[in-house]
Design a protein that fits this description.
The chain is mainly α and 95 residues long. The chain has a domain of 38 residues: Histone, subunit A (Orthogonal Bundle). Helices cover 36% and strands 4% of the residues. A two-stranded antiparallel ribbon has the order 1-2. A hairpin with a 2-residue loop joins strand 1 and strand 2. Helix 1 packs across helix 2. The longest helix has 19 residues. Heterotrimer of A, B and C subunits. Belongs to the GatC family. GO terms for molecular function: asparaginyl-tRNA synthase (glutamine-hydrolyzing) activity; ATP binding; glutaminyl-tRNA synthase (glutamine-hydrolyzing) activity; transferase activity. One of its GO terms (biological process) is glutaminyl-tRNAGln biosynthesis via transamidation.
């Protein structure tokens, strides 16, 4: 796949990036370089390779997934501009 100048201009417009006319060839080339790198990555055989979390071998810290009350309702509600009966109070938006 090759990106031409018109496609690069369209991508820049969709991304809301202002690119000057004289910079479009360089942008198109950059897109082509990125696509070439992706094609190289697709050629790599990753069958049987486990996903990595880091370049150094390590295990993720895990905790038990348990439901709690949080125990911080008063602290959280202290930041609210208006709180009533233990809940955030918001203006009515439906008439």
């Amino acid at each position: 796949m090759s990106i031409d100048i018109e496609t690069a201009a369209r991508v820049a417009k969709l991304a809301r990036i202002r690119v000057e006319e004289d910079e479009l060839p360089a942008l198109a080339q950059e897109f082509n370089n990125i696509l070439g790198f992706i094609e190289q990555l697709q050629e790599v055989d990753v069958e049987g390779v486990e996903p990595m979390t880091s370049v150094t071998p390590m295990r993720l810290k895990r905790r038990e997934d348990g439901v709690t009350e949080g125990g911080m309702a008063k602290t959280v509600l202290s930041n609210a501009p208006d709180a009533r009966e233990g809940f955030f109070a918001v203006p009515k938006v439906v008439e």
